[in-house]
């Protein structure tokens, strides 16, 4: 396979070929020269004179290659381009989720029980005891995935309509991994007060709220206020999901390198939503030596910051009062956690770290430094990408943590519950399995959701936020 296309996208090109005027080889050559790699050929129809209609499945390294292929095929005599289909776009046609009834309505008696008149008795029961909404409605197993489209993946502020495919995907993951019914709610406002008011108003049908892709610093205020004003879990996954999985991976990386969290010197680059949540988790877990670096350099208590989060950060980290930039922060550090931008970490930075350092380069799609540029210098390397070992993926966290919170009807997700989730994820990998290339389990490991769920339920009970004890 062409190396430039091996990690790219897949398109399906339907063409009509007249072999007397254009042998297939000419079309294949044109596709290759335009940047495509044919990986499958399906004959759809044959006609007179050997004319065929074929679907060509083609790997491309970049979206622009599809246009080049179309132009190249369009110049060949005897070749008619019928259409080009992107398999990803085909998957999204009509959306990716649907609603299915749990019980079929097959006769008038069924209809009267699920709807009027019998449903009135259920309504009255909930009216008399609102807590019965958890047992008599979808509330106990349903989550709202709420976004304003202001910070979507690496795309930035693309708005609510363009955010929908991501939120639908999130809903699919909830269902696939934890059997939680989730629904995407994409709001056409980026006003903090309006978002808070809307989410409060739509909260009754939901057992929890997953905030997603809301930009910093508004995300902090939105989550804090909603958790204060609602009695169901509010979880900003970009903050806490990332923090939980990073913490899980770090626990195993420290175990592998013979370090303790309390003694490790940790540098976090990028003090936004995820960086702040990660730091709070590390502090709660017992970390003592954390230094944060952002655009203004090392955050320290000798400075006053207009950004309230940075001010909090400066007051709660960097006990030695270090000043300077990333280079100064990393000198003799044991751990680098990057939540910033591609390319900011250099080999010279890593060379100045302690022996056998741990590097988590989490920027997406381009990490702070690529593994192949630094693997000879580090003991453990992790990224947010699926094409490298040790992917730090939020899917390891949010299905199990919500499953546990819903099952015990937790009123909130506490720091103790997040720590328990991280420890459960880390614990899935045994000491015998642990290696520099395997510090974090695959999202498809079937033990993860149940292990996280059990630990989260226990932590919720111990934290005093559980309203029921589920039967195992």
Written account of the structure:
The protein contains 18 helices and 14 strands. The chain is of the alpha/beta class and 472 residues long. It has a six-stranded mixed β-sheet with strand order 11-10-9-12-13-14. Strands 2-3-1-4 form a four-stranded antiparallel β-sheet. Strand 2 (36-46) and strand 3 (52-60) form a beta hairpin. The radius of gyration is 26 Å and the shape is globular. It starts with 8 loop residues before the first strand and ends in a 9-residue tail after the last helix.
Give a quick rundown of the structure:
The protein is of the alpha/beta class and 472 residues long. The chain has helices spanning 24-33, 64-74, 87-92, 108-114, 119-128, 133-136, 159-178, 192-202, 218-229, 237-257, 273-285, 308-316, 326-330, 347-351, 371-374, 398-407, 415-427, 448-463; strands spanning 9-17, 36-46, 52-60, 79-86, 142-147, 181-186, 208-211, 234-236, 265-269, 289-294, 297-298, 335-338, 358-361, 380-383.
Which quaternary structure do these chains form? single chain
Radius of gyration: 26 Å
How would you characterize the largest beta sheet? 6 strands, mixed
By DSSP (H or I, 4+ residues per run), the number of helices equals 18
The computed structural class is: alpha/beta
Task: Kindly estimate the percentage of residues that lie in beta strands according to DSSP.
Answer: 15-25%
Overall mean confidence score, pLDDT: 94
User: Percent helix among the residues?
Assistant: 25-40%
Give the distance, in angstroms, between the N- and C-terminal Cα atoms.
49 Å
What order do the strands of the largest sheet run in, or round the barrel if closed?
11-10-9-12-13-14
């Amino acid at each position: 396979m062409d190396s430039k296309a091996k990690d790219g996208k897949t398109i399906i090109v339907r063409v009509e070929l007249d072999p007397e005027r254009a042998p297939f080889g000419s079309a294949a050559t044109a596709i290759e020269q335009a940047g495509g790699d044919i990986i499958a050929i399906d004959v759809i129809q044959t006609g007179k004179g050997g004319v065929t209609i074929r679907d060509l499945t083609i790997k491309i390294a970049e979206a622009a290659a599809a246009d080049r292929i179309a132009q190249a095929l369009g110049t060949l005599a005897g070749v008619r381009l019928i259409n080009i289909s992107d398999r990803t776009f085909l998957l999204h046609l009509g959306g990716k989720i649907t609603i299915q009834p749990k019980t079929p309505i097959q006769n008038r008696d069924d209809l009267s029980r699920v709807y009027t008149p019998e449903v009135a008795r259920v309504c009255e029961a909930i009216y008399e005891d609102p807590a019965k909404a958890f047992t008599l409605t979808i509330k106990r197993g349903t989550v709202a995935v709420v976004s304003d489209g202001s910070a979507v993946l690496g795309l930035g502020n693309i708005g609510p309509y363009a955010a929908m495919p991501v939120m639908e995907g999130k809903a699919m993951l909830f269902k696939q991994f934890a059997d939680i019914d989730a629904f995407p709610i994409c709001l056409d406002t980026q006003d903090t007060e309006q978002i808070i008011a809307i989410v409060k108003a739509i909260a009754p049908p939901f057992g929890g709220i997953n905030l997603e892709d809301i930009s910093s610093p508004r995300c902090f205020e939105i989550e804090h206020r909603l958790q204060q004003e609602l009695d169901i879990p509010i979880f900003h996954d970009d903050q806490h999901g990332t923090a939980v999985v990073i913490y899980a991976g770090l626990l195993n990386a420290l175990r592998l390198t013979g370090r303790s969290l309390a003694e490790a010197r940790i540098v976090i680059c990028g003090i936004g939503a995820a960086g702040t949540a990660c730091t709070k988790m590390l502090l709660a877990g017992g970390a003592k030596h954390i230094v944060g670096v952002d655009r203004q350099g090392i955050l320290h208590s000798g400075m006053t910051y207009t950004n309230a989060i940075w001010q909090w950060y400066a007051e709660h980290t960097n006990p030695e009062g270090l000043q300077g930039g990333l280079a100064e922060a990393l000198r003799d550090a044991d751990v680098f956690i990057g939540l910033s931008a591609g390319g900011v970490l250099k080999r010279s930075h890593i060379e100045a770290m302690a022996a056998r350092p741990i590097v988590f380069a989490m920027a997406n799609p381009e990490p702070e430094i690529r593994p192949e540029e630094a693997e000879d210098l580090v003991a453990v390397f992790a990224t947010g990408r699926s094409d490298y070992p040790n992917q730090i993926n939020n899917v390891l966290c949010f299905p199990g943590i919500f499953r546990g919170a819903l099952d015990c009807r937790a009123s909130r997700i506490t720091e103790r519950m997040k720590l328990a989730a991280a420890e459960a994820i880390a614990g899935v990998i045994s000491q015998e399995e642990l290696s520099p290339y395997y510090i974090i389990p695959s999202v498809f490991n079937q033990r993860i959701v149940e292990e996280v769920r059990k630990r989260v339920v226990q932590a919720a009970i111990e934290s005093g936020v559980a309203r029921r004890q589920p039967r195992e």
